[in-house]
Amino acid sequence: MANHASALKRNRQNKKKYDRNKGYRTLVKTATKKVMEEVEEKNRENAEKELKKAEKTISKAASKGVIHKQTASRKISGLAKQVHQLSA
After folding, report:
1. What pTM was computed for the model?
2. Binning pLDDT at 50, 70 and 90, where does residue 2 land?
3. CATH code reported for the domain at 5-84
4. Tens digits of per-residue pLDDT, 4-46?
5. Distance (Å, rounded) from C-alpha 15 to C-alpha 27?
């Protein structure tokens, strides 16, 4: 365990950051699952609506630094690919 004041403060800061980021990661996972559920049901209209919501959530998480920009781009791209395959 940390003994110095600076290390104790760093631990407090890390806990706050972890809790805040955990919420964003949960939102990203939930949004992704909603899109995939609509894709599995082959409901294109709802899938596109959910994709739009998921894209916003994922982009916001990336802008906050919770996930890397390229990771966000990859997730959005993969979801979009799944949704657009419904029309084919």
Report:
1. 0.86
2. confident
3. 1.20.58.110
4. 999 999 999 999 999 999 999 999 999 999 999 999 999 999 9
5. 19
Residue 77 neighbours by CB distance under 10 Å: 10
Please list the helix, strand and coil fractions of the chain in percent, rounded to the nearest 5, in that order.
80, 0, 20
The domain limits of the chain are 5-84
Buried b (16+ CB within 10 A) or exposed e, 17-41: eeeeeeebeebbeebbebbbebbee
Category of 43 on φ-ψ map: left (φ > 0), alpha (ψ -120 to 50) or beta: beta
**Mean predicted lDDT score pLDDT of the chain:** 95
C-alpha to C-alpha distances, 34 to 3, 5, 8, 23, 83, nearest whole angstrom:
45, 44, 40, 17, 12
